[in-house]
Design brief:
This protein has 14 helices and two strands, in the order E-E-H-H-H-H-H-H-H-H-H-H-H-H-H-H. The protein is elongated.
């Protein structure tokens, strides 16, 4: 970055960034957030509250006026954030150009796609609870035939990954099942079958498989695949040791390793 830290005054009262639940105290911290969290630039940061904070706490009256004018014009996120970058001298020419290109590609997407990208980013950063809220809002606003079954299958899948990150394996399984119903992919079926023993007893697990009328060979392959994931995650454990133990031992091992297999 082409800037020196804390060239501007630090605020006595911080600005609370809702999306990451973090306080910031300087213009440079605000720039860092905007630059590294492009998918989270929305109304939670582009608002009158931020403008007032910049005026009252940082004493940057001219920047306040610029930003407030952009709020009224509603010309897009780029016109709001770049005056902030310029005030701090945060980006060089190349960095500014690359950021502009990324932001432009983002802004031409539909609201649902932008929200999905935001949720995916939150999962990647392990902010699982926030991601759940984003994905749920997308599903609540779902319109008939708007984006196709594959899009919503992906939403259910990624929502399952977010719940898995929160150790809500029952919710994760429900989501993977919904994803599989829409997309019928082997990977989402694998995730669903893998999630079941994480919250069901052995008997309940086997009953669920019978209700599904799941192919026994396929289920066996899924279990072998998960065992292989466990083996790779811990080189000292071998597949044979996991599979030769009792079912409870296997399920305990699977629970410890499941999050590694519930990728987006």
């Amino acid at each position: 970055m082409s800037y020196d830290l804390c060239l501007t005054e630090q605020a006595k009262k911080p600005y609370f960034i809702e999306s990451i639940r973090t306080d910031i105290y300087s213009l440079e911290e605000l720039c860092y957030y905007l630059y590294h969290n492009i998918y989270l630039i929305d109304e939670t940061i582009i608002n009158e509250g931020l403008c007032d904070w910049i005026r009252d706490e940082l004493g940057l009256t001219r920047l306040y006026r610029q930003l407030y004018a952009q709020l009224e014009k509603k010309e897009g996120a780029a016109f709001f954030v770049f005056p902030i970058f310029r005030e701090a001298g945060y980006l060089n020419v190349q960095e500014g150009r690359e950021f502009q290109e990324k932001l432009s590609r983002l802004e031409v997407q539909s609201e649902e796609v932008r929200q999905k990208m935001r949720g995916d980013y939150l999962v990647k950063e392990k902010m699982f609870a926030r991601a759940v809220s984003v994905y749920r809002r997308i599903l609540e606003k779902k319109g008939p035939g708007r984006l196709g079954v594959q899009f919503y299958s992906s939403i259910w899948n990624n929502l399952g990954a977010a719940y898995a990150g929160l150790f809500r394996y029952d919710k994760a399984a429900e989501c993977f099942l919904e994803s599989w119903k829409l997309g019928k992919t082997k990977e989402t079926f694998r995730k669903y079958v893998s999630a079941l023993p994480l919250y069901l007893s052995e008997q309940e697990y086997r009953e669920k498989l019978r209700e599904l009328d799941a192919d026994s060979y396929l289920v066996q392959r899924i279990q072998e695949y998960n065992a292989e994931l466990c083996r790779k995650a811990d080189a000292q454990k071998k597949v044979e040791e996991i599979l030769s133990g009792d079912v409870d031992e296997y399920l305990d091992e699977l629970k410890r390793q499941y999050r590694r297999s519930a990728k987006l």
